[in-house]
Design a protein that fits this description.
- The protein is an alpha/beta fold.
- It folds into 3 domains: 4-36 and 75-234, Phosphoenolpyruvate Carboxykinase, domain 1; 54-66 and 313-407, Beta Complex (Phosphoenolpyruvate Carboxykinase, domain 2); 240-309 and 409-611, Phosphoenolpyruvate Carboxykinase, domain 3.
- It has 17 helices and 30 strands.
- Strands 1, 4, 5, 6, 7, 8, 9, 10 and 11 form a 9-stranded mixed beta sheet that branches. Strands 15-13-14-24-28-25 form a 6-stranded mixed beta sheet, sandwiched between helices.
- Strand 29 (540-542) and strand 30 (545-547) form a beta hairpin.
- Helix 3 (42-52) runs antiparallel to helix 6 (145-154) and helix 12 packs across helix 17 (595-610).
- The longest helix has 16 residues, at 218-233.
- The radius of gyration is 24 Å and the shape is globular.
- It starts with a helix and ends with a helix.
- Its main location: cytoplasm.
Length: 614
């Protein structure tokens, strides 16, 4: 068994509580070797991973990895929030008692690192010196070198982040053990995987994966689930699955900031990394802060809502990323960036990578190309059109590699939030943008956020899969308390952000075309929203919010038909009345929902009943 103290002394790790934690888990896991890592170790660890075949070269300064074929995505059904208070149980957080889960996970991890290295990753999930520092520090223990390399790209890594803590005990304890992936019973009644956040003890125990959010514990487990719980328990901030962007108006010299939540496949990353459309590019510039997580709090001095992205990198979906859809994402993984591609197609001879949507057609010469499982494309049977890359294939790169990253992305003070937007993929009911100026109605809208699911087969055409604030998979305490916490935090601001709901995905019911061109053009409704907040436009009042008039929305250079424009700037009252019934059933699931939310629901329902069909 390894000597933990020798390894920690060598690395200069002095925090006594961290040392105690490492010794404890070294004994449980039986690790043969312990290595404390920092960002400065990246080049050496990459070289070791290449020598071991854990990575393959993907051109200059880029790397390729392939995961076990059943270990390719976050596993919601195996993800558990465990605390010591049953009141923390919610509709979505799969709550279990900590007294049950901790011994179970310790049992699975006991002796699991015999003959292996335990890597110690001290990390920080915020720019150093932020007001939320006390919630941002963690130490992940892992048995997987590629996890270390991803963490170096996704978080700030080094012993300095734990050695100087004002309270040596104020760090998240995160333990990741891969397990024998081939024998864990993925998706069967015997599934042995457990991804547990013991939120009130600030302890994360993940067993049975080496992929993504199951293994990069600073990201979702700490940055979202644990942070959401910490923010609520401390009554001090919100930890949300939000993108965060800046919009610079070169004419006025002012920069606005917009945060927002979007369910899966609703355009969040493309929005976060978008460029201004050509017709507006001389005046406006969009800057990137983050595409996945934002922490929000109220500055006591200014009374403004502030936000920062706690992550240091991007763990992006490769599929459909190309020069047209998201050039900034594509160039964030250019040669020399140190990016890691996972589960894309790979050609060992040429060191090229490819995924569906990267180019209109796959490479014509399939010689040497391997699909995401490592099988030769050239050996496929005629007619085998299985994807070359896994639909959830990823790229990992640091924020600094994103071409339009904001100059102050690493500023610990955060940035003031002017607007909070929600957006789901819906084909008919939701207009292009509708603004909400009432706090309770804004929070209510976030709680009823959803995207279309395949409910038509069940006879409930048009029903959404609700995803409150886009946090359904990341809730760590009861939803009623969550709504109250939102009202408390944002309600404390003397200058509150404007809320809005956006939808880029309305379709023509006859031929199915998208009514709005989307992508870079999505800046236009955001500019209208900011103008509304500034009092520069007034919009048109409806039962569900304020909509832009055609004259107010800058459509310079946009090709759109009269029928499409009329549709995306109007409300289908009948569809909305149907939606209100679905919303009521959805909200009834949440125990202790604040009265303000129910009152907002009744106000919107009454306004819809009073609305005429015009």
């Amino acid at each position: 068994m390894a000597d933990p103290d020798k390894a920690m002394d060598s690395a200069g790790l002095t925090n006594p509580r961290v040392r105690e934690y490492v010794r404890h888990w070294a004994e449980i896991t039986g690790a043969d070797r312990i290595e404390v890592v920092s960002a400065a170790d990246d080049a050496r660890l990459v070289a070791e991973a290449l020598d071991a075949g854990e990575l393959e070269p993907a051109g200059e300064g880029r790397y390729y990895s392939r995961s076990y074929h059943k270990d390719t995505a976050r596993s919601e059904e195996r993800t558990i929030v465990a605390t010591n208070d049953p009141a923390d149980a919610g509709q979505y957080n799969n709550w279990r008692p900590a007294s049950e889960m901790k011994p179970l996970l310790e049992g699975k991890m006991r002796g699991a690192l015999v003959g292996k290295t335990m890597y110690v990753i001290p990390y920080l999930m915020a720019p150093p010196g932020s007001p939320l520092d006390q919630f941002a520090t963690g130490v992940e223990l892992t048995d997987t070198r590629t996890v270390v390399l991803h963490m170096i790209r996704m978080a700030r890594v080094g012993v300095e982040f734990v050695n100087d803590l004002a309270d040596p005990d104020s760090f998240v304890r995160a333990v990741h053990v891969t397990g024998e992936l081939e024998s864990l019973g993925h998706g069967t009644p015997d599934d042995q995987r457990y991804f547990v956040t013991c939120a009130d003890e600030r302890t994360i125990l993940h067993f049975g994966s080496s992929y993504g959010g199951n293994a990069l514990l600073g990201k979702i487990a700490h940055g979202l689930r644990q942070a959401a719980y910490d923010g609520w328990a401390s009554r001090s901030f919100l930890g949300e699955q939000f993108m965060l962007i800046g919009i610079e108006d070169r004419q006025t010299g002012r920069t606005y900031h917009v945060a927002g939540g979007f369910p899966s496949a609703s355009g969040k990353t493309n929005l976060a990394m978008m460029q201004a459309p050509d017709a507006l590019g001389d005046r406006y510039h969009v800057t990137f802060y983050g595409d996945d997580i934002a922490w929000l709090w109220v500055d006591p001095d200014s009374g403004r809502v502030l936000a920062l992205n706690p992550e240091y990198g991007v763990f992006g979906v490769a599929k459909d990323t190309n020069e047209a859809t998201n050039p900034n994402a594509l160039h964030s993984v250019d040669p020399g960036t140190g990016a890691i591609f996972t589960n894309v197609a790979y050609n060992p001879a040429t060191q090229e990578v490819w995924w569906e949507g990267k180019t209109p057609e796959p490479p014509a010469d399939v010689t040497g190309w391997l699909d995401w499982k490592g099988h030769a494309i050239a050996d496929r049977e005629p007619g085998d059109d299985a994807p070359w890359a896994h639909p959830n294939s990823r790229f990992t790169t640091t924020l600094a590699n994103v071409p339009n990253v904001a100059g102050d992305f690493d500023d610990p003070k955060g940035v003031p939030v002017d607007a909070i937007i929600f957006g789901g993929r819906t084909r008919d009911r939701e207009p292009l943008v509708r603004a909400i100026t009432d706090l309770a109605e804004g929070v209510y809208d976030g709680l009823t956020l959803g995207a279309e699911a395949t409910f038509a087969a069940e006879g409930v055409d048009g029903q959404l899969r609700y995803d409150p604030m886009s946090m359904r998979p990341f809730m760590s305490y009861a939803e009623g308390e969550y709504a109250a916490h939102w009202l408390r935090i944002i309600g404390a601001a003397t200058e509150q952000p404007i809320f809005a709901h956006v939808n880029w995905f309305q379709r023509d019911p006859d031929d199915g075309h998208f009514r709005w061109p989307g992508y870079r053009e999505n800046l236009r409704p955001l500019l209208w929203l900011l103008q509304l907040k500034n009092g520069e436009v007034t919009g048109r009042e409806t039962a569900v919010g304020i909509l832009p008039t055609e004259e107010e929305l800058d459509l310079t250079g946009v090709e759109i038909s009269r029928a499409d424009l009329d549709a995306i700037l109007s409300i289908d009252v009948d569809r909305w009345r149907q939606e209100m019934g679905f919303r009521e059933e959805h909200l009834k699931q949440f125990h202790g929902l604040p009265d303000e939310i129910w009152e907002a629901h009744r106000r919107v329902a009454a306004a819809l009943e009073a609305a005429d069909q015009g």
